[in-house]
Amino acid sequence: MTVESGTYRQGVVAAVTELIEPVLEDLGYELVEVQFRREAHGQVLRVIIFRPEGIGVDDCARVSREVSHLLDVEDIIGQSFNLEVSSPGLDRPLKNARDFARYRGSRVHVILGETSEEVVGMIEDIGDEQVVLETTGGTRVIPFSLVKKAKLVIDF
């Protein structure tokens, strides 16, 4: 398996996720995503974290120290890489039920796959297979399988 293969990258992401997720939970953070890819300045391991109070620079530094130490001890990557820790950001796409649940009570803009219909509404409820939005036209139940894109509506 080469370092550049998708299978290798997926294996690194899975191994890193399994290693760091319990530690991050103990520290009070939710692991949103782990990415491992080649970028202009080399291999990048990106760890994206969340907590309801928000993520600051001190949070990123704390998690970076913990993750770096774990990865040094376990040596599961086997090559040099740059570690980046960040928050999901407000404009990050909502991809799964956990993302929608994280922002319950927030307004979202959803584009449905088959029709490209656009729906804007407040996240009221989330199930395993669907999200319930309160829109100006009433309640809409949208199966996740129909969601093509979804993002938070940012009001300034």
Report the end-to-end length measured between terminal Cα atoms.
Answer: 48 Å
Low-confidence stretches: none
Helices and strands, in N-to-C order?
HEEHEHEEEEE
Based on helices, strands and strand pairing, what is the structural class? alpha+beta
CATH fold annotation of the largest domain: GMP Synthetase, Chain A, domain 3
CATH class category name of the largest domain: Alpha Beta
Task: Tell me the count of domains.
Answer: 2
**Helical percent range?**
25-40%
Radius of gyration: 18 Å
Gross morphology is elongated
Major pleated sheet? 5 strands, antiparallel
- CATH architecture descriptor name of the largest domain: 2-Layer Sandwich
**Total beta-strand segments:** 8
What name goes with the CATH superfamily of the largest domain?
RimP-like superfamily, N-terminal
The strands making up the biggest β-sheet line up spatially as: 7-6-5-4-8
Beta fraction of the residues? 35-45%
Give average pLDDT, whole number: 91
Report the total helices. Answer: 3
Features:
2 domains, 156 residues, GMP Synthetase, Chain A, domain 3, 5-stranded antiparallel beta sheet, SH3 type barrels, 8 strands, alpha+beta
